[in-house]
Amino acid sequence: MIQKGNVCLYGFNEALQAGEIAADIGSAWRGETPPPILKPSHSPGPTRTLDEAEAKQVLARHKVPIPQNALIDSTPQLVTCAAKLGYPLALKVLGIAHKTEAQAVYLGIQSAAELTTAASNLFRRGDRLYLERMVESVIAELFVGIIHDPQFGLLLTLGSGGILVEILRDSRTLLLPVSRKEVEQALTSLKSAPLIQGYRGRPEADLASAVDAVMAIQQYAISEQNRLVELDINPLLLCAKGEGVYAADALIVLQQEE
Questions:
Q1: What's the first-to-final CA gap in the chain, in angstroms?
Q2: Which of 4, 12, 35, 232 is 20 to 30 Å apart from 127, CA to CA?
Q3: pLDDT attached to residue 164
């Protein structure tokens, strides 16, 4: 067989694995040539962490959807803003990274009485609060993160969001820049993908809007590649198909300019 120019593979498992690899290579060759990978653009140095309000405003300017919100520095202002936003609400202390563990957040507030009690407790932790309308009818939660790696440049991580990001360790990592197709493939390959696709008769999540949000986040990261150190959105809330997505919490760390 070899003398006649035929390739011989030893072992069924090895032959099947070689066939899969050859198919992947062929698929890559038929696809579009990807853009060049972004190279590392800065060295470690002093950093500044944006608080949640600042980070979300940055994301909103780059067309990443965020819930309706208001900055609060007094109880009277809180009551007025709550009436405009409507219930249920979330109330958080600004400037604390891990709010749940630090007991610096109240979720699912349903009344003015609950709100003023929460504010009384939180004003002991800080003088600026962040009031936000809670997103209802959430189908799935995702983690979206970007870090600047000194060897590989900007790395995008997509995974199951909320507390599942640590429990399931369910994520995919891609080098920027990425295409819409790569983002969609990464999301639909997660262990939590059945939730996005409509598990056991539940509504299908808005995958297209999730991809839109990730692409918008990528554009921001590329525009700030010379000073972006880290960006985390956890969770990115996915509503039913056609109802959009929202960044429920956000962290941005930037290198300080000299």
A1: 67
A2: 232
A3: 65
> Which residue shows structure tokens 């429990």?
167
| Count of residues in the chain | 258
Q: HSE-up of 97 (CA within 13 Å, CB side)? A: 8
State residue 5's pLDDT score: 85
| Residue type at position 12 | F
Q: Reduce the DSSP state of residue 201 to 3 states and report it.
A: helix
- Best CA proximity match to 122, nearest among 144, 145, 153, 99: 99
> What tens digit of pLDDT does each residue of 39-67 get?
887 777 899 999 999 999 999 999 999 99
User: Which residue intervals of the chain are DSSP H helices?
Assistant: 12-30, 52-61, 75-85, 112-122, 164-167, 180-188, 193-197, 207-223
CB 155 within 8 A of CB 178: no
Peptide bond into 88 cis (omega under 30): yes
Please give the helix or strand (H or E) that residue 157 lies within, else none: strand 153-160
Q: In terms of Cα–Cα distance, which of 100, 167, 108 is closest to 136?
A: 108
Domains and CATH numbers, the chain: 68-133 (3.30.1490.20), 136-255 (3.30.470.20)
Distance CA 54, CA 49 (A): 9
Q: Is 84 exposed, middle or buried (0-12, 13-18, 19+ CB in 10 A)?
A: exposed
Beta-strand relationship, 228-239 and 250-255: antiparallel
Give the tokens for residue 156.
């995008």
Does pLDDT of 216 surpass 80? yes
What is the C-alpha separation between 186 and 164, in angstroms, rounded? 17
